[in-house]
Amino acid sequence: MYSVWTKHLKDPQDIERFKQTVQHSKVALDRLNEIMLEMEEMLDTSEQNAKIYEIPNWDYRQADNIGYRRALKHIRRLISLDQKDNNGQLNTTD
Q: How far apart are CA 70 and CA 28, in angstroms?
């Protein structure tokens, strides 16, 4: 679990209780991950349609899609409670 989940807490007991609460929410977080994967698949499908290039300012729409995809990836990484980097910090640069 990334430390960002508990950085608002100072008391070790509060931190542990909060971690347990989040862990008990794993089923809901896993479902949220599945929903977000479906959202990304819909984005993939829309990007594969050649008609998108007929839309004025399609390049801005593409840039928006890239940002949206990055946000989905970031949130999916955050709710994946099993993974973390070396120091427990969530990398927000990619």
A: 22
Rounded to whole angstroms, the Cα distance separating 5 from 77 reads 12
pTM: 0.75
* Structure-token pair, residue 42: 């819909």
Any domain includes 4: no
> Is there a domain that residue 93 lies in?
no
Residue 72 lies in a domain: yes
**2 C-beta neighbours (distance < 10 Å), count:** 19
23 falls within a domain: no
pLDDT digits (tens, 9 = 90+) for 54-87: 888 888 988 999 999 999 999 999 999 876 555 5
- Residue-number span of the structural domain to which 62 is assigned: 36-84
